[in-house]
Amino acid sequence: xxxxxxxxxxxxxxxxxxxxxxxxxxxxxxxxxxxxxxxxxxxxxxxxxxxxxxxxxxxxxxxxxxxxxxxxxxxxxxxxxxxxxxxxxxxxxxxx
Length: 96
Hints:
single chain, mainly alpha, 4 helices, flat
């Protein structure tokens, strides 16, 4: 990874951090939790992928070739018990 890319990634991290710290909704939620007597810490995990544009164009053409050969790959999607607990805590339901 070259120094320029490292610098841009650092700038992105700082921009995300700044936008979170300036969010009134987040500050209000944190204040309400603290008012109820809790200490709070917030840890966010972000996965950021990147590739050069010429590589992206190459990757974009591959699914069309795979489809032309009649093959399709379904992505594997699994929800763990922890995932369900988290979603319920956020009042997000999965339907059935």
